[in-house]
């Protein structure tokens, strides 16, 4: 027997798959020409979904709502093309949300009597499932990291996806429930600490899941899910102590379409900053030899930290500009040095300095990691501390 043939047979067997992978990785065709039938069917489904939403909920939407919906279609289409797992998530959110809406039959009281609503799909039930799944995902990510178990980490990843699904369904259904209370009460569910903590958890998890797929590692899930679980812990305390899960009418200061774009942009920034801080923790641990053989390479951690801060800074900048425009409309001036505005500026300056040092001075290593972690403390005070300890024009957000 020719030993060279024996040793080369596995590589021959795997050659077609390796060649296909190599070809996909280095496909130099224009992006649109690389799209297949399923990609275009997804785009068609998104357009059809937007058309359905416009036809059904047209009376409840103003000009700006319709504009945002129309503009969201190409954004989500490109997201689905670039990041294929997002397609199933979008489809799941749509199906479960519409199913839940149908179960209500226009009667909010059915949330306490219909089986699926009571235990799974009312806004409170779905958000409770989200909370439980995030905590369990944290446990399994840590099991996977500490025991070197791919299965544990894989379960954690799947639970995180399930938590994101249930959380977004909860927000969509809560939006519908607010209109069942009254047309004058109905509003997008991003108006108080309860709702924005749900949004923060979902955005942070989504960004993490993207990096998990992009870098092909689940080791960071144990760290990122810690900050999400902390947010869930606050959410549960806030619900029990303040009955915050109840839907309340918007205070006059929030009765503006600016809220619908300012708040999501803000929390994309907050979520990205929180993710970068937890990646910074992983960087510092690996640098000191703690779990060093189980964490990604330092350059990978550094890259995730940089990209998270860059994305967060871009959206936080947009949110700050939108907030200034909103302030001019509501209070007659773009900037009033209100405590919330002042601390938002401090957060912006902190990350602007981080990025400047990175791009101009080549900031790397443990200094960058410590800075990112410190940035989380500054951001947390701007997010929560101002509401707890300071007063001003934003006092409607006090704990």
From TrEMBL:
One Gene Ontology molecular-function label: heme binding
Main subcellular localisation: membrane
Residues in coiled coil: none
Region (Disordered), start-end ranges: 1-21
Recorded topology in the membrane: Multi-pass membrane protein
This protein's UniProt keywords: Cytochrome c-type biogenesis, Membrane, Transmembrane, Transmembrane helix
One of the record's GO cellular component terms: plasma membrane
Keyword presence, Membrane: yes
Domain Cytochrome c assembly protein: 191-394
Any one Gene Ontology BP term: cytochrome complex assembly
Biased composition (Polar residues): 1-12
Top-level taxon: Bacteria
Transmembrane segments: 37-57, 88-106, 126-147, 159-176, 188-211, 223-241, 261-284, 304-328, 340-357, 369-390
Compartments reported by the entry: Membrane
PANTHER family associated with the record: CYTOCHROME B_B6 PROTEIN-RELATED, HEME EXPORTER PROTEIN C
Name of the protein this chain belongs to: Cytochrome c biogenesis protein CcsA
Originating organism: Paraburkholderia saeva
Gene name tied to this protein: ccsA
């Amino acid at each position: 027997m020719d030993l060279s043939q024996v040793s080369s047979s596995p590589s021959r067997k795997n050659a077609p798959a390796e060649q296909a992978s190599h070809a996909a990785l280095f496909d130099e065709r224009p992006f649109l020409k690389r799209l297949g039938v399923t990609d275009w069917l997804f785009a068609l489904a998104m357009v059809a979904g937007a058309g359905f939403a416009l036809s059904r909920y047209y009376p409840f939407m103003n000009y700006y709502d319709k504009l945002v919906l129309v503009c969201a279609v190409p954004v989500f289409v490109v997201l689905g093309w670039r990041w294929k797992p997002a397609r199933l998530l979008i489809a799941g959110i749509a199906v479960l949300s519409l199913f839940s809406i149908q179960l209500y039959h226009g009667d909010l009281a059915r949330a306490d009597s219909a089986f699926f609503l009571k235990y799974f799909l009312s806004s409170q039930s779905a958000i409770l499932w989200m909370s439980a799944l995030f905590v369990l995902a944290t446990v399994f990510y840590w099991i996977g990291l500490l025991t070197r178990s791919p299965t544990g980490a894989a379960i954690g990843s799947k639970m995180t996806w399930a938590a994101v699904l249930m959380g977004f369904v909860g927000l969509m259904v809560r939006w519908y429930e607010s209109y069942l209370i009254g047309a004058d009460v109905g509003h997008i569910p991003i108006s108080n600490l309860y709702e924005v903590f749900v949004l923060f958890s979902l955005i942070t998890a989504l960004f993490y899941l993207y990096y998990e797929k992009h870098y092909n590692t689940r080791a960071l899930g144990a760290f990122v899910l810690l900050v999400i679980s902390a947010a869930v812990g606050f959410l549960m305390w806030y619900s029990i102590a303040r009955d915050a899960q109840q839907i309340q009418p918007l205070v006059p200061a929030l009765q503006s379409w600016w809220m619908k774009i300012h708040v999501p942009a803000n929390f994309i920034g907050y979520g990205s900053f929180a993710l970068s801080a937890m990646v910074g923790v992983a960087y510092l641990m690996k640098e000191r030899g703690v779990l060093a053989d189980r964490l990604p390479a330092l350059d990978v951690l550094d890259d995730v930290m940089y990209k998270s801060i860059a994305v967060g800074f871009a959206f936080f900048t947009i949110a700050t500009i939108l907030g200034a425009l909103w302030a001019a409309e509501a209070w007659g001036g773009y900037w009033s040095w209100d405590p919330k505005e002042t601390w938002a500026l401090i957060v912006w300056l902190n990350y602007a300095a981080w990025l400047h040092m990175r791009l101009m001075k080549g900031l790397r290593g443990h200094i960058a990691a410590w800075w990112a972690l410190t940035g989380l403390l500054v951001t947390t005070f701007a997010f929560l501390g101002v509401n707890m300890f300071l007063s001003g024009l934003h006092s409607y957000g006090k704990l």
